Fold this sequence. Notes:
Radius of gyration: 17 Å
Number of strands: 0
Distance between the termini: 57 Å
Amino acid sequence: METILGLCIGIGLSAACGFRVFVPLLVMSVASLIGWFEPMKGFEWLAMPSVCIGLAVATVCEIGAYYIPWVDNALDTVATPAAMMAGTLTTMAASTGEMSQFASWAAAIIVGGGTAGAVQLSTVAVRGVSTATTGGIANPVVSTGEWISALIVSLLSFVVPVLVVIVGIILMVIVIRWVRKKRQENSIQSSNA
């Protein structure tokens, strides 16, 4: 049961990495410092105050950069592989010692990196639709929603990890359907013009 709980925490945190790379890592670091979370062996560095400060600075810089027009779209190019790496790390750090190193890393790469990548690609699609339909005017609203989602999902991953995974799957389905609908509407409008 502890292994499943650890994976659920990792999946929730990796989903949050898809919204913002540094927010879940900062939440993990703060949770480690206050005793809510004990990272897996080898990830004790998350509980260092200097790492927490560094992650806080990186988080503020990342959130701020997404409010700069056109930089937000350029950041998505870098953020996609970074989110997958961060998702892998958060899942690995949340895994318990009950699994072998190989199984832990395999789960972290496949589940954590895959989840972060899927969420990140969804946010890229939403930002693309926002840019195409509003000329980028709505992108700050999208950015605000993304970093708030990253924070909420990160916090809830520690409080109700199984629920976060279930809700995350449901929301992914909704977002994918919404993006497909918007693309179809745009292609219909383009073909009529």
